[in-house]
Amino acid sequence: MKIFIVGITGGIGFRLARILKLGGDEVNGLYRSPNQTKALNSIGVTATLGDLVSIEPRQLADAMRGSDTIVFSAGAGGDSHAMTKAIDGEGVTKSIAAAKLAGIKRFFLVSVFPEAWRERHMDEGFEHYIMVKKQADIALSKSDLDWVILRPSALKNDPGTGTISLGVAQIHTEVRRDDVAATLAELIHTPAVSRKILELTEGSTPIPKAVGTISSN
Ligand SMILES: NC(=O)c1ccc[n+]([C@@H]2O[C@H](COP(=O)([O-])OP(=O)(O)OC[C@H]3O[C@@H](n4cnc5c(N)ncnc54)[C@H](OP(=O)(O)O)[C@@H]3O)[C@@H](O)[C@H]2O)c1
């Protein structure tokens, strides 16, 4: 299978690329700094250099063309309102447009729990981020693509456990980036999971079993 990852150098994107390559998939993606070429090459990936803010949908479509699946895992990391809008918002709609231009149907979006950290009374920048992510979910869910929206809870870099809790509604806790990437890889190879919003947290169910349960529902 050929997978194109927007945000391939990110915490989740890079882990996903590594897992997919180890499993024998072809992986491409969008990255913005030539300094990252060596790290990508080290896992056997030759990706496409470009900035999500300035790239035209047609150029992104050219880079994606021939892929079976798109994964959007880019994020501005709470940089500023403008960058959140440009990456987490318009970056998604641009990627949807590019996928359509390239004739690619399958599209995974890494999103966030809309009710993340309600109890913490987060600042206005965080609320804006949550609002932009929700609008991106809506844009993808209204498209005619074969989409899956995956909402991980708060991300940690601790080594993966191989077990998760996955479902249409979960309590927002924490989850390891390794486990998010492994879940995405499993979902990518499970075409029966389609047009679903899934929430993902730490848990005790082995990843293949958790994804298998979703695919049979
Ligand atoms: N942090 C959390 O607890 C949390 C919880 C739930 C969901 N999420 C969401 O999960 C997703 C992935 O998280 P993560 O930890 O993997 O994020 P990350 O490590 O910050 O990765 C973000 C990726 O987006 C890329 N990117 C940013 N601006 C770009 C641009 N202008 N052009 C091209 N690429 C650009 C980054 O490239 P560079 O390497 O060049 O920066 C990087 O590859 C994000 O959408 C985030 O909102 C996060």
UniProtKB/TrEMBL annotation:
<dbReference type="InterPro" id="IPR036291">
    <property type="entry name" value="NAD(P)-bd_dom_sf"/>
</dbReference>
<dbReference type="Pfam" id="PF13460">
    <property type="entry name" value="NAD_binding_10"/>
</dbReference>
<feature type="domain" description="NAD(P)-binding">
    <location>
        <begin position="7"/>
        <end position="191"/>
    </location>
</feature>
<dbReference type="InterPro" id="IPR016040">
    <property type="entry name" value="NAD(P)-bd_dom"/>
</dbReference>
<protein>
    <submittedName>
        <fullName>NAD-dependent epimerase/dehydratase</fullName>
    </submittedName>
</protein>
